[in-house]
Each structure stands twice: as C-alpha cells, then as structure tokens.
C-alpha cells in the first residue's frame, strides 16, 4: 500500500450506493483522500473488481457490534483469489427515520431499510410506529434513494431508516434522530487489497486468519486455540462459518492481536499451518483502536531471539 | 411436551408466510399433525406469541449449511424470558425460479427473494440471468406471493426464487428447478417451547447452550471449551454472537452432544455455571440424525456412578 | 483420630531408633503426648505394625527439601492395605559431627551416617575432612549408637553425622555443629493411620493421592493435571514412582491443596477416578504451614452449591 | 564423541568398584572397547573427573525400573558445569546371595548390600532369611569385596547381595540366584560427556532436559507439558527433584522422544526457554530400545519445512 506521488490516482471500491455507512468508512480512511471512490452493489461485486485489478482496494463491512459478523464479507474473503486486509475503520452507527418533505410520522404505514438496520431499530419502531410494516431494501442508502425523485411517490414505503448523510443526500426530511436501539453501535470496516507489501508493524496490530480444520474431531477447535495460548496471543474475534460442504462443517474466521512479523505470531502460524487443512492469511494491519498489544515478557521478539540463539548454540 | 389425547388442540407458530421452508419443517414434525399452524412475520413475532402463552411452540430456522447461523433466532433465544428447544428438523433446501404463467425467462429483468436465498443462488444467476437485478423480500414465500394476484403485475420483479411449494401455492410457473448453488444445502429448524418437561433421553441427543464469559481475558474461550473436553463431550456447533454491549464483546451459542440428564453433561454444566457470568440452557432434545452419541467408557453414566460411590466411601 | 479420655493409651510407631529426626517429628506432634512411642527399623516395619493393628499410627518421613521424596514411604503407601495420612509435621534438619569423648577432629578417618544425611553434608566434608571415607549406616541415630558403648571402639568409623539429640543421647561429643550444606533444610513427616474418621476441614488442608494411568499414552499426565486445573486446584508436590511393572511405567504421587470434603476436590477426584486405572486416596489433613488455601470465587463450595441447585432446576 | 584411530586411548570413569552393574553397563557400551575404565567411589566423583577433563566420559546409573530415578545422578547433572548424555545402556538386574566358601545359608545372620539392592530383594529375604539383619554398604560390589580377603572374617555380615560377576570376582560362593523380587528389573545407565559434537540423529532418539519454573504458580507444570503436547512430543520420563531452595520448590528432569535437531523438538525447546527460568539441555542420544519415534504427519521435519516456507512467503 505504498503511495507515491507520481502514480496515477488510485481507485477504491466500496459497498454503495452513496450515503452508506461504508462510504463514510472510506471517507474516514486518510489514504483514500484524492482517490476515486467507486460504489458497488454488493460486497462480492466490490471484491470482484479488486481481484480483477480494476481498483486498488475495497472498503467493506466485516463486523457490527450489534449484528455480528458480515457473512458476505467473511465468505468472500475466505475463498477465491487471495486478498488481504490492510486497514480497518470503525464507524459509529446512527440511524434516522427520513421521509419526503411534508410526510407526517403518523402517516408512515411502511418503512424501508436494509435488514441489518431494521434489526437495530426494532425497539424504537415497536415503541413509536408499532403498526408500520417492514419493506426490505438492498441498503439503507437505497431505501433513502427509493423515496427520492419521481419514483418515491410509488415507493412501497413512506419512510426510510438510513444514515443522516443519506437523508440529506436525497433531500429527505428527518422525522426522528438516533433511533438505533443501541446507542453505542459501531460497525467495523476493512480496506481490502491484493497481496503486496505488508503494512508496517505499529505495535498495535491485528492479524486476520481463516482456519480450516484437518478433520472434525472432538477438541479440534481447542487444539487450534492452544496454538495461540501457548504463545500468549490474544484472540479478539472468532466467527464460525460453514464451509458449505455439509451441515456442521465449519471454518473459523479469527482476529488475533499482533503482526505476522511478530515472532510469536509467526510461530503460531507455523503451528496452525501444520495442524490445519488450510490456513488462509488475510493480512496484518494497524488496529483502529491504536492501543499497543500487551505482550508478556516471555513472548516478546527479544525473548524469541534469545531462545533461538540458545537453541543454535545447542545444535552447533 | 407431553401430548395427552384429551387436551385442547395445540397451536404452533412458525416463520411464515405459507410456503416457507419453515412451514415444511413444521409439517415434517410429527407431533404437529392435527394442530393449528400459525404463520408469523418474523422469528421475533413467533417467539413473542410463544412467550405470551398464545401458542404451544414455535418452529424457527437456526442454522443453514451454506449461510450459517440464523442471527435473529440465536439472538431471540439468548435473551428475554427463557425458552427451550424440544426438537430439531432438517429440511433439504431446493430453490426454483418461478414466475406468473406466460413469463419467459428471457424477460426476467429483476428477481425477488429473501437475502439468504439470494446468497444461495448467486452462481446460477450469474450464469443464467447475469443482467437481472435483485429485489429483497421478507421471505422466499413472500416473493412468490408478491407475483401472484392482481398486485403481481406491478411487482418490482418478474420472477421469484422460492421453494417449489410456494410456487405451486401461488399458481406460478417454474422457469428453472434446483437452482441452488449447493445441491446438499440443508436448513436446520428447531421447535421451541416454554420450559417444561424435558424431552426424554434417547442416547442420540443434543443440548444447546449460550455462554456469557465472566470477563474477556485471553484464553477465556479455551477455558470454556476445556469444560467439555475434560468430560469427553463433543461440540457440534459454535457460533459467536455480539452481546451488543460493545464491539468485540461476544457470547457463544453452542450445541453439544448429549442430554442434560447425562452425568457428563450435567458436570460440564456445573463447571460452566461456575466459570461463566451466565449460562443459558436452551434445551436437550433428540438429534435429527438419530445417531447415538459415542461415549468413551470413562464418561458413561456408569463410570460417573462408580466414581461417585467411591468418593462417597472416602468421605463417609 | 478421635481422642477420648477413657480409651486405652495409644501407641505410635516411628522410624527409629531413638534420636532420629522422625522421633523429633513424633514428639512435636501434640496428639502423641502421653502415648507409647515405638521405634521401628524401617518404614516398612512401622507400616506393617500399623496395618496389623498393633499400633494406632506411624510417623514416617515423606519428603526432604534437599533430597526429595522418600521412596520407601511413597512406595509403601502406594500399595498394600489402604492407609491414610492424618497429619504432617515439618522438622528443620540440623546435623552435627559427633564422636566419642576425646576424639580429635584431625583423627577422624571415616564417618558413619545414613546415605541421605551424607548427601546433605558433602560440601562441609569436602571442605573440612576431605580425606575421610564414608561408611553407610541404617540411620543417623544408628551411626551415633554405633560409636557408643563398648562396640564403639571397633566401629568402622570414628565420627557420626547425626541429630544433636542423638549425640547427647549416646554421650557423644560434638566436633562441629550445623554442618548441613543447606541451612534451610527441612524434612516433612506424616502421621499415617488406618482409614477411619477423616480429619476435620480447617481451610488449610492438603490431600495426598497416588494416580495410576490407564495407559501410557502421550499427554497422559497432562490429562490428569487438567482435572485439577479445570477446578482451580493447586498441586504442591508431584513425584513419579515406578510401578515396577516395566522400565518407564510410572505412577504419580501427588499432594493437592484442599480437603476431600471440599466440593472442588471431590469433583476432581471423580474425574480422576474415571480416567485413571486406579486412584489411591492417601488422606486429607491440615497443612503444617497453616496458611488457608486460596480459592478463586468460582471454585468455592458456595459456587458449587449454587451451580448444583441450578442444574437441579434444569433437570426437574 | 568422534572416535579417530590416531587419538590417544580414551578413559572412561564409572561408578565402581569393579563388579558393579555400572561396570557391566560400561562393558556393554561398544565404544568403550579398548579404552581405560576407571572406577570411582561415587557418581559425584566420576562426574568431577569428567568435568576436570581427566576422563573422556563417565557411565552412571540414572533410573531403575523398580527403585526409580537415581537422585545422585539427577542432581549432579542438574547443576555445575554443563555435561551431556551421549548414550544410554539398559542392564537387566540379577542379584545373587553370595558368601565366603563354606558358609551355609542357615548361618547367615546379617546381609550386606547397597540400600537400593536391599529394597529389591526384601521379598526374597522375608521369605527365606527372615531373621537376617541388614548392613548397608557403599555398593553391591563393595558388599562382596567386604567378604573377601582377610577382612572378610571380621565383616559385620556373612553374606552379600550383589551381581553374579561381583561374586565370582571375589571368589565367593553363590548361595542363591535370581533373588530379586522383580524378575524384569532393569537399570538404565547413561554415558555422560562434556558438551561437544552432538550424537547423530537416528530416528530413535531421546533428549534429556532439566526445567526450572519461572515461578511456582498453579498450573505451572501444565504450561511446560503443553509445550511438548502442542508439538506432538511424547515424554518418556518425568522426575521432580527439589531445587534445594525451599520445601516444595522443584525442578523437573524430563526425557522426551526425539533429537534436538528435530524441528518439533527445537521448537519445543524454544518455547520452554522462553517460559522457564532455566532450561538445562542434557543431550540428545540414541534410545537403547532402538525403536523409531512415531511422529504424526504434521510434526515431521517436512511439515515444519513447508510451514516455514509458507510463512516466509507471507512475510516477503
């Protein structure tokens, strides 16, 4: 992800349309300033552009503090040509209820939004618009877009749940603000790229992996987690995802604290590579929280270096 | 779940409308024969009826072999008044592309279906209808319903992806059969009830739990899994779900092999209860596959009984 | 080990002869006051008297801070009719070099003592009597006794390494005091009895076990230790002892913190009983150090009680 | 341990005197043929000669199938200048009861031998010479020597328990053969040398280590054993030995299967070096049994090599 001044302008895909939280994430990611931002209709579409070499990176959602992992992203990264995460961005999630100017809240009989957004405003809806029916849309921004323009008059819903920016983009009026049931909701986005230069170590890094077990024996997951524990590595996310082979066959999407260049992470990867059917490396990158990883004294690079020098002397 | 001949007819809620795979699951569950089947617009709605005592049980999807865990169900069971699973049903998933009679496949410009179904037919769509856009609907059956009747003419899509039964229910014509990308796709449904009599032990049982960690320390999950491993208990499903408290705070939805009345399961539950902030028991019930759990000789009820008699003699 | 005032006087065997550190341990054990103390020529002999019902208890050494476990005791307790430890006593080990009155240190050409004592004064000997040869004796007290009386003139050695009390018992002169290489040396003795009433719980208890593995598979010991770890039980001693079956076949003699009446200890014993070929319970008794066992909040009896009540409610 | 034809003859120390089982072990070790064999009065003395460079190696006992670890050897190797094991020899242990010609078994009132030998013939003695008292000697061979020559007439015992060769060396008559209680008794001896060239890998190797824990926390030993388990390494011996610092402070003397040049062993050593206060490497050498170590497919050198190549590609 080097950025040289004499190269052509970069292009980044994102899960669109304009006005999505993903766009906000891409805007918030400093290296994207001055680059072309290209909305895509789906995570798959964004990653397909990236794999095809038509864009330099893609911003996609990976995890929501309320809804959990984003399956489309997890699955798209776990198969196909290798891609790696090079950065992550956290975006607080704030929903508004928006409608065409002049619409009264009392006249809202149906509400359009993405199903994940709907799940996050159910409490507010039950309390304030208990009679309203739900109309699914492709994204929160699409719900807002559907109300705007001439088509809006025939839309199957009278109000949209979307980001404030989507409402203003489309000239909608905000009927209610901050309607999310969880005020602290946040979504984590990742900037994905084709494998290339590794992001530098910052001391506050994450590494993302997908682990496929060799066979589905009892205690199999325990064996994988021990590879981290024995090297003092903390795990910050674990998602199981079906391998699609059969009911009950899962792989594990995992974030650990540390960088692939850290000795302890490297050795854990060696261990996993040996015991797993497949280990998919999805990148090492700076953690958005910026807090340095706490490393016990005997798992520092120095401790590994001293141990290796000692082993070398024994073998000489 | 006793069933006495002199009781009033039972009522079971399910995730509707008619024609969903969930209805097929409820129909396939023998004890529901002769009972009233009541469709609901959402998992939450079905479980609300159950918690309110208006129905005797609810059939809801919990896991799909391709799409993974069903978040709405996992989350609804993990909070609120206690409910328990008393049975599970596996339904093979077969999708058709259906349209109003007379519609040619070539004229299909948009396709309506539930987002989970759409994810499972993307391969077929890319190969056969690459230009078609996707219109989300509340369910696969709703997509079919949307095409039927007078409204169908104004529907935002010309074809629906749904179960064969939904197509025939609504008088639609099947344009293509078996369009799922994964021929072996299957969805697992659970029949949920209010806590009451435990289903009897069959020797081929499952127990479902939700575990909330006491604190989020390194190796925390390892500690929980060891409670199973040390008693020779196999885990057949592990899903992490956000507790919604903050990014990175997860609980674990887990299926293990065995019944709460099994000694080894009981002791593991004791261990979990002590080390977890909360353990939510979601029931013990016969596994749909019907294969007896393999128990090592030293974790049988007999082995526990002998050990307990010995301990008793030491303490006497 | 109840002690009623109207019973006949008790008799305790000990590893003699008079003047051994074992006698000091028996004297230091309050309940032996007023009882008959009976010296025996070996640990086996003392325990044989106990098993035969001829004495009420036997004081024997089990562990020395410098020399380690006392094999004769460990092996005698690990087989034969069951015996249990009911108390432990720690005795600081102080050695003197003693000789018949008038003998000069310069004239000492050979030194008699027990081999364990010899191992603990080798440094002093090398520095102060480098030319002296070593003559093994049955005990340190026997070395002193050998110098005394008429026989002493023909003894194969001119000085004995023994306890101060043995020197004074036999009218010997102390040529050098505190000649042990390790000033903090201490030996741990145990009062062994036939199984009967358990010593009461004090909160500062130990439990002694001998574990025989079911088969000698890789990771077998790990599996046993996990039975303690998963219940938060600390291990204060681990000795491996050959089962005598074949080279490399070992059992494990273990001390853990806690009493068999503690819930967490009871459950660990249940686990061991199930996974081991044999578990030999060698008693629960107050630790000599008197420091209360540190118990984590989730392994207290209360935590077990609450968990059990919860499990009972699930099963009801 | 290279052996070039033009070097001066080698000298090996052993635990003497002549006629000990240790001498038999040294004789059985092929590379000692033609070398000078030098008896020493103790294990410490033999290892002191080796450390001083006066001999090329020392044969000492380390483990007996009935009596367990040989503390003197374990402790002498665990401290002081580094030494390494380069070979091991197993010697079946056969004891005879021997006396001066003409002595009748019925006239034996006292029996001399080393305390470890005495422990191994107690059953025979109780059955055949129940009245005989025990006189400790420095070694079994010393017991035989004590009966021989002019001194024998004044010896404190009339018969010796020793190896057949010691009886014949000293012109004694065998009163009873094969008097060991355990017919399969065997002692394991090790040939110790100063650190130098490592013995070559044979595929049937052992590595001996002494591990000192960083602090004596609960589960500390578990943490060490996991370093082996996570790399599929089997442990064939574990002895705890006091560090002599205080009661309850132990180090662990361990044999594992494999050679320090094996990748899995090297990585385990790295792990131990990091988590232990000290790791003392006591050599890698061919196992006497000659049976190749069973290595699981994912812990072979090839598996490590492939994993390392993969990690290298990720980091490049």
Automatic annotation (TrEMBL), chains A, B, C, D:
Pathway of action: Amino-acid biosynthesis; L-phenylalanine biosynthesis; phenylpyruvate from prephenate: step 1/1
Entry keywords, A to Z: Amino-acid biosynthesis, Aromatic amino acid biosynthesis, Lyase, Phenylalanine biosynthesis
NCBIfam families: PRK11898.1
Name of the protein: Prephenate dehydratase
Ranges of residues in domain Prephenate dehydratase: 11-194
Residue span(s) of domain ACT: 209-286
Catalysed reaction equations from the record: prephenate + H(+) = 3-phenylpyruvate + CO2 + H2O
Pfam name, any one: PDT
CDD domains found in the cross-reference section: ACT_CM-PDT, PBP2_Aa-PDT_like
EC id: 4.2.1.51
Keyword Ribosomal protein (UniProt): no
SUPFAM superfamilies named among the record's database cross-references: ACT-like (SSF55021), Periplasmic binding protein-like II (SSF53850)
């Amino acid at each position: 992800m080097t950025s040289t001044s004499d190269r052509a302008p970069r292009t980044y895909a994102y899960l669109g349309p304009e006005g999505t939280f993903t766009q906000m994430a891409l805007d918030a990611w400093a290296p994207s300033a001055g680059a072309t931002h290209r909305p895509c209709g789906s995570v798959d579409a964004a990653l397909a552009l990236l794999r095809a070499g038509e864009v330099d990176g893609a911003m996609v959602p990976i995890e929501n503090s309320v809804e959990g992992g984003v399956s489309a992203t997890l699955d798209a990264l776990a198969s196909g040509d290798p891609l790696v995460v090079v950065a992550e961005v956290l975006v607080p999630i704030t929903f508004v209820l928006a409608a065409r100017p002049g619409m009264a809240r009392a006249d809202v009989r149906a509400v359009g939004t993405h199903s994940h957004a709907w799940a996050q405003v159910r409490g507010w809806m039950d309390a304030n618009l208990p009679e309203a029916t739900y109309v699914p849309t492709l994204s929160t921004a699409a719900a807002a877009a559907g109300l705007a323009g001439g088509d809006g008059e025939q839309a199957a819903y009278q109000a949209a749940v979307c980001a404030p920016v989507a409402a203003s983009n489309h000239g909608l009026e905000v009927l209610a603000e901050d309607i999310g049931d969880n005020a602290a909701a946040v979504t984590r986005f990742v900037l994905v790229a084709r494998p290339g230069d590794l992001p530098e170590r910052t001391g506050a890094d994450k590494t993302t992996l997908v682990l496929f077990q060799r066979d589905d024996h009892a205690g199999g997951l325990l064996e994988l987690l021990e590879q981290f524990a024995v090297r003092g590595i903390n795990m910050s996310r674990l998602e199981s995802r079906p391998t699609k082979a059969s009911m009950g066959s899962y792989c594990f999407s995992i974030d650990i604290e540390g960088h692939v260049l850290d000795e302890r992470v490297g050795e854990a990867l060696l261990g996993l590579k040996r015991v797993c059917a497949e280990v998919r490396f999805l990148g090492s990158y700076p953690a958005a929280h910026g807090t340095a990883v706490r490393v016990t004294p005997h798992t520092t690079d120095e401790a590994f270096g001293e141990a290796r020098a000692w082993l070398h002397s024994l073998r000489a």
